[in-house]
Amino acid sequence: MVLIRDFDADHSFESLIDRLEYLDNLVVNAIELMPVSEFDGNISWGYNPSFHMALDKYYGNKNSFKAFVDACHERGIAVILDVVYNHATGQNPYFRIYNDCNGCYGGQATAENPIFNVEDPNSTFSFFNDIDHESVETQYYVDRLNKFWLEEYNIDGYRFDFTKGFTNTPGDGGAYDASRIALLQRMYDEIRSVDPSAYVILEHFAPNEEETELIEYQATSNPDEPGMMVWSNHNFHYNEATMGYNSNSDFSWINYQNRGWDTPSNIAYMESHDEERLMYKNLEFGNSEGSYDVTELATATDRVEMAGAFFFTIPGPKLIWQFGELGYDFSINYCEDGSINNACRVDPKPLPWPLGYNTQQDRNDLYHAFRTFIGLRQQNPIFHTDTFSLDVGNADGVKKIHLEDPSATGDEIRFVTIVGNFSVFEQTFNPEFQETGTWFNMMDGSEITVNNANEPFTLAPGEYFIYANEESVLNTSNIAYSTIKMYPNPTADSVHFTENATEIIIFDAQGKKLFVQYSYNANSPIDLSGLPMGLYFAKALTNNGLESFKILKK
Fold this sequence. Notes:
Layout: H1 13-18, H2 20-25, E1 30-33, E2 37-39, E3 49-55, H3 62-74, E4 78-83, E5 87-88, H4 93-97, E6 129-130, H5 136-153, E7 157-160, H6 178-194, E8 199-202, H7 208-216, E9 229-233, H8 235-243, E10 266-269, H9 278-285, E11 288-289, E12 292-293, H10 297-309, E13 318-319, H11 361-379, E14 387-391, E15 398-404, E16 415-421, E17 427-429, E18 437-441, E19 447-450, E20 457-459, E21 464-468, E22 486-487, E23 494-497, E24 501-508, E25 513-520, E26 526-527, E27 534-542, E28 545-553
Parallel strand pairs: 1-4, 4-7, 7-8, 8-9, 9-10, 10-13
Antiparallel strand pairs: 2-3, 5-6, 11-12, 14-15, 15-16, 16-21, 17-20, 18-19, 18-21, 22-23, 23-26, 24-25, 24-27, 27-28
Helix pairs in contact: 5-6, 8-9, 8-10, 9-10, 10-11
């Protein structure tokens, strides 16, 4: 998730293009931009929209944004827009035409207003001027907005802000609301009619019953239709674990199966624009025992790395906030004068580049660990299995994850055991390996022999391991990466590779192997016309090594 204003000193689409190599090296497959439509002022996150269909001039013009989207697509990176349809500021022309102060920026919407409510039915969470989603005019307006951004800029989907507010039911939005569900399903249907592959992500935070109904809704009978997804906040519990306070560090709700779901439709995150930074609290409030001190930088970054090992490896989509991979440690409430105050929440924050974050050893190690975790997710289907368990609620800080891929054959990974010590003192415990034999450390390729699956294991504070019962391709030392390239990307029907390959394997976004082509001849087409639009992955094994690719099928 990226806030362009605080990502680069030039705060522009062009500068973000120049930073794409950094993001691509992190192996991300999508960039979610915080609002880029016109908003009041410049010192803002963009959640105070005024003109929903116009780009904010602070970031650049339409051609620059189109160039950014194209540059992302060339790298196989999807672009998701954060948009705000719950409300608008007084500059919005529909508010000004129908208000009680003759077109001023203040006042109140009148009963004749076709878009805005006279009164916000949600008095607890009330922002600017509330949009009436039950109005036919609003529905037409929103549908036009969604169609415009998809077709004009070729974006790949949306994150809709505060969808809990898309209702006229009085209250704080926290109760099950059938009318709100119907409104969101209607909007989803219209989006899918424009682009059947578009991502639809809701910042909803409504009762699990309601979110379940939304994510299970399908616009078509196509079993591959992904449906809607919802944001899933796990900041508090992960941060308790990284600080070393484990009585409230149970993050097992990140498991979509614990919500009664059959599909991983929760966009889980440890940090977002709206949450305090893990590293800030580590350094300010971290626990200690003897010489082990979480408030020291090296230890604090190691703790975030361990959290990453227990985050990225859990099946389901993941979101990271910009520079979390570098251990960004300025508070969300940091003021430009260096003080900490809630009033400074949306103020500009120091950029990490001039501070050398990307070259400091501890932070650079964290970046490469995150890169490895994401790479492991993409290259090993076991991290997309639906057969897994989390044992992460122990007050002593010992946490374990077990994954199994029942479909694995031959030398494919069937079992993964992840163990970590989130306490601040040494722990001895049973790792519960799924079988005896040779196990491989997926981070460095080292081996251990397990003769007793329940033999006690001892870990130092902050120590973790990710073990697999077979060697991971990502860390196979005798396989180098080749120079093979793929084109075109995005594609409508087929892809080509520039070198001969022993085999080409195509996976879907969940890591499921779709098909394999052996003895591939350079520059010959691989037919993808039978696949739905969306994101896919390819592995190409040549005589020179292995390379992985992201494919965006439009």
